[in-house]
């Protein structure tokens, strides 16, 4: 039991949560256009941090700086308490940060297993893999089934089916599963429920919850307020290139969030 002063019943101080990813006073300009104006952010283990904001508020720029698609002009990014500088998305991938963009970037002609390992194909053991570069299709399919099962994805029973034959929600599930498979530190989801129906949106939201339950922190960018308030632990609100406030679904309502986002009120 934690007491009011922060100590435990046994007298030991309560453990302090340390953020897994932080951004401190990030600045990004494009000529005279200010994309980010001193934005700071903290992401903690096992939480869903939603980022909301109107068009042009700096959401995309912030995510690009966190994932290596852009390099901030000023500020610092730390991962596990250590300063990092991502000059390209591959740097973020290598550090354990995976991003699922709105466009998904799946290959429709390839099957589910091949998409999960796209660009990271498993090679067969021995000379077949090291010399002849032969892909271990059996191994990839086995691991793909395991990843889908771990995430609770029951709508994709056959990992040999081509992605072009899947529904929008199933394609999103493949992209999220790929991010979960390789995102050992952080998974970033950019508008994951955009253009999906109610049933498929609910499936994707459940995937987000499953990721959190596995201890994987998630950054969720979304315009859909009900979805944000359903899954987010904290909500980072961007406005005019700055962080207007960081709130929780318990402390503020959807109306409050929209008012802060549009400048109608302060936090």
UniProtKB/TrEMBL annotation:
Entry's Gene Ontology molecular function annotations: ATP binding; ATP hydrolysis activity
Pfam families: ABC_tran
Stretches that traverse the bilayer: none
Keyword Transmembrane: no
The name this protein goes by in its record: ATP-binding cassette domain-containing protein
Keywords: ATP-binding, Nucleotide-binding
Taxonomy, superkingdom: Bacteria
ABC transporter domain segment(s): 21-265
CDD domains in alphabetical order: ABC_Carb_Monos_I (cd03216)
